[in-house]
Amino acid sequence: MLLGNGTTLQSIIDNIKNGILDAKINLVVSDNKNAYALKRASENNIPTYIIKGNSSEKIDLELENILKNYDIDLIVLVGYLKLIGKNLINKYTIINTHPSLLPKFGGKGMYGMNVHKAVVEAKEKISGPTVHYVNDKYDEGNIISQTIVKLDKDETPESLSAKVQAAEKIQLTNVLKEFIQKKEKNKV
Which of 40, 98, 132, 163 is catalytic? Predict the structure, then answer.
């Protein structure tokens, strides 16, 4: 998993502990040594890794070398802002969460509060999170799931962010449940 702040990671950890998800997090990876997600992982005895490379090619090779040491069925990107290289895309199933209803408000530079500001400024009536497969372009992979969040007349980027984040945690849990069920079904 590649994470930033870690609230979504904590949601997944809690869902595993509470039996909602029958899964195991084998590794948490970040390109920010100060990411709170790393602390959350450590507190839950989940191995962590901090990316050292700074170019897409170096990061791709670095991650490939690290991930081969773990049993990885799925990579979940949450708050990770760099493009993933083709080597990883071809070897792993990788999904990403995005805080808008793609294809609207996606692409390079469209993350976090940037997205919510753009949605509010465009006077959109709805927004919401998208979970999609990762390809070699920002936010252009096939959509797995979207959840609609209605904007209030006095919506602010901050209030919209809170709504979308809450919806995203539920949505991602459901996507992960479906992934686990399909994996179990294919074992039979």
Answer: 98
Domain range for 67 is 1-92
How is residue 166 written in tokens?
Answer: 């809450």
* 132 catalytic residue (yes or no): no
- For residue 120, being part of any structural domain is answered with yes
Domain assignment present for 138: no
pLDDT tens profile 144-170? 999 999 999 999 999 999 999 999 999
In this prediction the pTM is 0.92
Q: Per-residue DSSP letters for 139-181?
A: T-SPEEEE--EEPPTT--HHHHHHHHHHHHHHHHHHHHHHHHH
* H/E stretch holding 3: strand 2-3
Question: 124 is written with which tokens?
Answer: 């959109």
How many domains does the chain contain in total?
2
Q: Hey, what are 86's tokens?
A: 């083709």
